[in-house]
Amino acid sequence: MRKAFHKGGNSSCRFHIRQHYKVYNEKCKSADIPVNHWAIPRPIWRVMEEEKDVATRGRMTKKQGQQLLDFKTAVGPREFTRSGILQAVATLIATNNQPLALADNPAFRNALVSMRPKSTTTDLPSSYDVKVYLHNKFVQRIVELEEEIKVSNSSIRLNGFEYIRT
User: Fold this and answer.
1) Chain segment 112-130, per-residue pLDDT in tens
2) In angstroms, rounded to a whole number, what is the distance separating the alpha carbons of residues 45 and 54?
3) How far apart (Å, rounded) are the C-alpha atoms in residues 105 and 163?
4) Closest by alpha carbon to 25, among 16, 35, 15?
């Protein structure tokens, strides 16, 4: 009587069902029940996954042949200048919320040198150079804003609305 009932945990049940996969699969199809993935034997599951991957890759490309890569060209400086590298490093630090000490980081400086092997240490900006550059740019922008405010004596345009001084 004991042999009539399956004893064991979930993993034992799954292993047992895998031994009778053909019968299980036929009964599921006839009853219109989805097959549980745990009941599928590993080799059959692997083949199903590979077929799904091939189908997915085929859908991602127009044809299943080799495709051309669409490279975007980056517009940047054509030649190396000290002021150009200072501006690039300052922009990187300011826009990506990086610490000023990044400019003095040896790994970062080595990366800059690898882009132009002829560089010397005087060509590369230090954290002090970046700090002075950012400060000067800030002061320059404040002066420009003051000039714009002086020019628009009668009205100030803010967020698309015009405020008239009375």
Assistant:
1) 888 888 888 888 999 999 9
2) 14
3) 48
4) 35
CA pair distance 124, 139, nearest whole angstrom: 23
pLDDT tens digit sequence for 40-85: 888 888 888 888 887 776 655 555 566 667 777 767 667 788 898 9
Which tokens in the block code for residue 121? 């240490």
**Could you give the C-alpha distances from 68 to 10, 60, 65, 73, in angstroms and in order?**
49, 13, 10, 15
Q: What is the pLDDT of residue 142?
A: 92
| CA–CA dist 143, 137 (Å, integer) | 10
> Residue 124, class by beta-carbon neighbours within 10 Å (0-12 exposed, 13-18 middle, 19+ buried)?
buried
